[in-house]
Amino acid sequence: MPINFLQLLQDSWNFMRNQRQFSAFAIGMTLIIQFAMSNITFPISDITNIDLSGVVLPSILIGLANTFLSALIILNISAINNGSFKHFFSHTSTVLSAFLGLIALSIIGVLPLSIGAVLVISQPDNPVFAIPFMVLGFYFIVKFYLVFYVYLVEKPRKSIKDTVAFTFQLTKQKTLPLILLILLASFVPSTLMSMIEKITMDISFIIPLVFAAFFNVFATVLTFRFYQLYRKL
């Protein structure tokens, strides 16, 4: 049975409407991280003179905080779905126990693309060696899009190796609906955010951040509900 994306969008919106308190708190927490990230500038044009303590370390810490919050939101959505939700931070210990695994999975997922990007930056006149890594990187991004959900939602929790194997098996011959999800959950919000930033750039810098936080939480709800249907295909 094919996934009805219009119904999926409607169900995700209804979830956020019905769970207003949770949604508002999740958006607020995400907004804090978005605000912190917006205050960090990364001088790509002068990458050799980066102030590690002033840029890289805060970026890493905020990235870790974002991973922690994303995992917490996923587990809370799962708890709401199961009727076992208590409060927003009730799954903190679960996230902490899974945190190193989530970081490892994140590194595995972005490693090929990161290598390709480094090769492009270091050898801009000869990008041939970077192409295989870039292609493999985009392939991994698609394949690994649901890996957090597999690692956090599946019971009992799988090992890193089994999570990767399960994720690849899950997406085998079912790539099209996954690509459609990525377009809806990542590409469309990014496009909308670019438009919102252009419209509001002379009004307030906080407005785009609020929209970004909303889109982030909505995309998490959408992806969770997609995952429930996708694993049954």
Automatic annotation (TrEMBL):
UniProt keywords, alphabetically: Membrane, Transmembrane, Transmembrane helix
Keyword Transferase: no
Coiled-coil features, chain-numbered ranges: none
Superkingdom of the source species: Bacteria
Membrane-crossing segments per the record: 22-44, 56-77, 98-122, 128-154, 175-193, 205-227
The protein's name in its UniProt record: Intracellular septation protein A
UniProt source species: Phocoenobacter uteri
